[in-house]
Write a structure and sequence with these properties.
By secondary structure, this protein is α/β, with parallel strands linked by helices. The chain is 24% helix and 28% strand. It folds into 2 domains: 2-195, no CATH class; 255-334, no CATH class. The strands form 4 sheets. A 6-stranded mixed beta sheet has the order 1-2-3-4-8-10. Strands 7-6-5-9 form a 4-stranded mixed beta sheet, with no helix packed on it. The relative contact order is 0.12.
Amino acid sequence: MILKEKDSAVGQDIKAMAGNSHEKDVAYYLRREFADTKDILVLNDIRIEHAGERAQIDHLVLHPKGFLIIESKSICGELKVNAQGEWSRSYKDQWMGMSSPIRQGEIQAALLRDWLHTHRETFFDKIPLLGKTLGVNGYDWQVLCAVSSKAILHREGMPKEISDRVIKAEFIAIKVKEITATIGLLHSLITTQPLYSQKALEQLSSFILEKQPASSIKSEPAVAMQKTQPPIVLAVREETPAAPQFQPSAASVSPPPLSCRKCGKGDSLTGMWGKYGYYVKCGHCQGNTPMKRPCPHCHSEKTRVTKQRDQYSLTCEDCAYSSLIFQNGTTEPA
């Protein structure tokens, strides 16, 4: 299940634009594979601050066995890693050294683990009878590097423990499935590795999402582009004008306010997340109502709900329509 999409970005240089595009490619492959998988939760573009340090994680996957951090690198040339774990890449036939994305991911994983461990009692339930709280230590922590599908990888000289973790973008979902696979009920009999319940995964993901900073990126107004472009006049052959047809504008269509499907009231709703996705709980009758609905612009059923702090947005995969659908503390979309 995709809980957070890749944040939009504008005003970047060429290198940053290439990196942003590659991250979107990796997010796409993860979405295609895990959009409907309830026990594999994908959060793209995660930012955390802890103990005076900051980290930005390209892709975080939460699953019953633990945590998987994926670093995206838009390497389109050749890539080598020597026996000492030192990375180098080619650019326009020139070789140059580069920082290890695997090591970078390990540093980020350590900060994330310490951050979650420090706050575990604020989001995890206590274990019945034991009086203890679930934690994050002892679970599986792994780091992968997703590189461009166009990259040429010199695996013959690459240490195996690194080669196994460097994956081309189109194979990233296959590798994630391999890492996250469990053996069902036999798992606890074959290994002592602990597993998170679905509820624990929900508690983990909800805490991480609530701590994400509000996006400050705003789209440029359309009139700004019009001012820089002179009008173009074309000579055309006169024809009988066709009857005008009304086409709703995506910008002018807004989803109707959410209301409880049980009692019909909409003045006491709270945004929640469960195994079937995002929903609102009614304070009057305690009924639950899904946020997901058909696109109000093209009426497609291929929509998804994403969350940014206390705001929930509806996005259509067919027409790219996107709008705020609910915000905690209000009964109507902004």
